[in-house]
Design brief:
mainly alpha
Length: about 200
């Protein structure tokens, strides 16, 4: 099933859109038949990402919703957090920013929620939703982690050619970093921003 999702993405990149959609649908049907909850959620999230990449955003959302419902029934909290974050990322890749945020905020543990918000912000930036990505990163409360999230958004924007916007986000991250009181954390945060800007920054 994971192989099918990767094949669908490869076909989409090659311009074989119709074939990619067929393979992605096949992957979704296969994932839904997996009995083990954790494996089913991982599979469904992976397929949702593939569906989003081939342009099937509504179907991607349906599959992600299915994954979320299954994830909520997982008893082990750490595994539940991990798969909810993966589902949130899949929703972000499909362009469903509001639902991705809602999914990330269902994660109880604060550190894992921060990680999920950063993942979702980066995914939104890569999907071309710069404004939503920035808003998502700025929801991270802890300054050092917010810098990390903003830096990831800046990197993603630069990689998709949004260099001016990437520089603006990096400047935002730098301003946040400079307000961190602890010297060691401030130095680390500023170094992370410099890394995000890259040689051309």
């Amino acid at each position: 099933m994971g192989v099918l999702a990767r094949v669908a993405e490869a076909l989409a990149r090659a311009g074989e859109t119709d074939r990619a959609r067929q393979v992605a649908d096949n992957a979704a049907s296969t994932a839904e038949q997996i009995e083990a909850s954790q494996e089913r959620v991982r599979g469904l999230a992976r397929v949702a990402e593939a569906l989003a990449q081939v342009g099937e955003t509504d179907r991607a959302r349906q599959v992600a919703d299915n994954a979320a419902s299954t994830a909520e029934r997982i008893e082990a909290s750490q595994e539940r957090v991990r798969v909810l974050a993966r589902v949130a990322e899949a929703l972000a890749r499909a362009g469903h920013a509001g639902e991705a945020l809602a999914m990330a905020e269902r994660i109880e543990a604060s550190q894992e929620r921060v990680w999920a918000l950063a993942e979702v912000a980066e995914a939104l930036a890569r999907a071309g939703h710069a404004g939503e990505a920035l808003a998502m990163a700025e929801r991270i409360e802890a300054s050092q982690e917010r810098v990390r999230g903003l830096a990831r958004v800046a990197e993603a924007l630069a990689q998709v050619g949004e260099t001016d916007r990437a520089r603006q986000v990096a400047d935002n991250a730098a301003s946040t970093a400079e307000r961190i009181e602890a010297p060691r954390e401030r130095v680390w945060a500023l170094a992370r921003v410099a890394e995000a800007l890259g040689p051309g920054g």
